[in-house]
Amino acid sequence: MAIEDVTTRLRNPEAAQTVIAILQQRFADKVQTGEAFRAQHAHTTTYLPAQLPDAVFFAESAEDVKAVVKACAAHKVPVIPFGTGSSLEGQVNAPEGGISIDFSRMNRVLAVNAEDLDCTVEPGITREELNAYLRDTGLFFPIDPGANASIGGMASTRASGTNAVRYGTMKDVVLAVTAVTADGEEITTASRARKSSAGYDLTRLFVGAEGTLGVITSVTLKLAGIPEKIAGGVSSFATLEDACNAVIMTIQMGIPVARIELLDALQVKACNAYSGLDFPETPLLLLEFHGSEQAVAMQSEQFAEIAAECGGSEFVWTANAEERNRLWKARHNAYWAGRALKPDYEGFSTDVCVPISRLADCVRETQADIAAEGILAPVVGHAGDGNFHLLVLFDKDKPGEIEKIEAFTVRLAERAIAMGGTSTGEHGVGQGKKRVVGKELGSAVAMMRAIKQALDPDNIFNPGKIF
Amino acid sequence: MAIEDVTTRLRNPEAAQTVIAILQQRFADKVQTGEAFRAQHAHTTTYLPAQLPDAVFFAESAEDVKAVVKACAAHKVPVIPFGTGSSLEGQVNAPEGGISIDFSRMNRVLAVNAEDLDCTVEPGITREELNAYLRDTGLFFPIDPGANASIGGMASTRASGTNAVRYGTMKDVVLAVTAVTADGEEITTASRARKSSAGYDLTRLFVGAEGTLGVITSVTLKLAGIPEKIAGGVSSFATLEDACNAVIMTIQMGIPVARIELLDALQVKACNAYSGLDFPETPLLLLEFHGSEQAVAMQSEQFAEIAAECGGSEFVWTANAEERNRLWKARHNAYWAGRALKPDYEGFSTDVCVPISRLADCVRETQADIAAEGILAPVVGHAGDGNFHLLVLFDKDKPGEIEKIEAFTVRLAERAIAMGGTSTGEHGVGQGKKRVVGKELGSAVAMMRAIKQALDPDNIFNPGKIF
């Protein structure tokens, strides 16, 4: 991991030290300045260099967060919220230094309202911790981005994942947040009501703001009932078009599929090699259905007919958990299988999202670009949403390699935008997609900037992200 | 309808005349200043007095809207977007005069992407016009607020209605909008992708902003597949608690009910009298299920078991359209049945929304308040969301009556807020709920004001609403 010296970028190098001294006096060892702590709280998941904060603050309460924000606001020092560090576009980097607020100690469940299918949690709780807590209630938190991310981080990057096609994204499941704003006070964006027309949708403004408008201190979430049965299955297709047609028909018919994942031929090849599988090395769809025994059987049979109509292989499905895990093994190990294609290379993940009618086109044109550039990048897609990921494998020591893949990701984003899609379906802008967000949204970015300026005039909240 | 003279409130009485002259020169009779036009474009649906705009502009294109906004911005004259005028909290009133932009001529469907289940429309199209247009595609626009409202108006008030429990609200189905901002230019808030993490959620910021941040010029909507079958049924319950328990169990079990409506005893009585029905005059639930023949039968049977368990009457259901309409007659005629309780009174509709665990409490306490005050106000609820409406019947000529019902609606909102709910589930703030939005959201309102100030510094967009 390359560490970039950010001291020259600090707006006021002494200010951070002043804030650290103030916080140390009041909070003692909740404040850590050792390089190991700071390096751990910088960006570590891609080719972007790590930019370390000046200190890490381990918050234990909303009062702690208010104190940090007040001290930072008084001295115009950046505040960078940190969940688990699993964001993928440099969201936790500190390009201008500042205080990283670590939320791992703010991981309590504050309330579960089982009758209302909602709960309120502190932002540092991870989705797996939350689901372990909920197990006895018959409810679960359905959003699954892969990583065991924190709820605050997932809200801030508008995360989603494999089952968004059924359960939505963080924009759909967050009912309200509390957040500390630039004046160091806490606001509550909404009530626990399922719906409201009471003024501007501040909840949705914080969801996806990547910590640039304030620091989230609690999140109220919709929950779902744990399905009585889960069925899963797989079907291979000769072409991307065939696979995507099956996805389109599934969505059009309103089959409430819980997951519908696409692996391209290279990813299938990688999975076969890594997990000892023997799928045809052509596009593969993996599906999951949630519901009563009768419902998942009905849905699986409906999809089997669609697969047959679209020229897919026989749809092999099961409601037996062990069998299902075996069928889904290719998807579960996709990341490590991809990495194993070139064990000595680095890998980073990028995503775009297009209307599903363009998914096959976008993947195919991207594969052609990959081939032309001599890049290795298997594709895994949340096909029901038109969202797909590339695991780009690269040799970080080879001159020109970073520039090549950066140019490739810009072309990828431009291709998605030209097809009516977005430069990022679920990873966010962070630092990595700043160069393309203007291509996608044009002058709407000026409106975002005006909001940022109005709510955070000194730009203390996670500077250098989105804009 | 009382018409309030607003001339004394104008910030600059000559400015509006200047703008009208500019627009008349360029647009001739797209500009109308006659009192009949102006009165028709003021608020007409409640006890709030009508406040007329200075002129009505019949926009035919986004270019027209840009021209009006530019002229108004240059002279700091208010701009009030007008769809069909069916909003319920005074959203289209012109308390400071200004130009009402009528969207009835901007009612084209700009694109339908059937494979992607989306379409883009001009804001003036009504939901019934859109559904008539879509009929041959096998798709429909599912949000149904009762009135044949315009899509732009529905987006602006974050409308929902009877089937929000299944299909969501406008916040869930709007993929993107284009809007003319205070500089007279048009922005696009998002792409057609199903999901995106590209920066702030400006789409959701415009949805529910009631025209206070800009003027929507097109809306891109998610559509749903027309269900193969629709089943409907009814069940009576001895108490509100029993009925609400049945609702809670239905939601908890994840039965994908399309509509689940609650009528209180007074509303049932009104419906019996109005439509010649003979339901027991106790709380009534009406349900609708959408899906395959097999699915709606399964869901109806599941609900029948729940109703039995909660002490409801036998759940009578059918998948025959004529029979279903007969069963649902009470709901379809609920408004006019309510009005018929006191044909010589005025009626206005108010709504709140609470977590469903508190729905029975909130309705019961509200009924007690109604009884104590001697008000007549039947209840109809979108029970699956915890949202309910009161049709408040009042004698507008009786001294003190308006003050009494205003105080009653404030208590209603406070009651909902105290139960973890919202002062308005779907009607919006407009003028009518301004007095309670601060009670609900506290200092979050200051953040809304800061956004308003940043995006519309001269307060030209629908002034006097929300704040």
From TrEMBL, chains A, B:
Gene Ontology terms for molecular function: D-lactate dehydrogenase (cytochrome) activity; D-lactate dehydrogenase (NAD+) activity; FAD binding
SUPFAM superfamilies the UniProt entry points to: FAD-binding/transporter-associated domain-like (SSF56176), FAD-linked oxidases, C-terminal domain (SSF55103)
InterPro entries: FAD-bd_oxidored_4_C, FAD-bd_PCMH, FAD-bd_PCMH-like_sf, FAD-bd_PCMH_sub2, FAD-linked_Oxase-like_C, Oxid_FAD_bind_N, Vanillyl_alc_oxidase_C-sub2
One Gene Ontology biological process: lactate catabolic process
Enzyme Commission designation: 1.1.2.4
Cofactor(s) demanded: FAD
Main enzyme class: oxidoreductase
Keywords: FAD, Flavoprotein, Oxidoreductase, Transit peptide
Location of the FAD-binding PCMH-type domain: 49-226
Alphabetized PROSITE patterns for the sequence: FAD_PCMH (PS51387)
PANTHER family tied to this protein: D-LACTATE DEHYDROGENASE, D-LACTATE DEHYDROGENASE, MITOCHONDRIAL-RELATED
Similarity section: Belongs to the FAD-binding oxidoreductase/transferase type 4 family.
Name of the molecule in the record: D-lactate dehydrogenase (cytochrome)
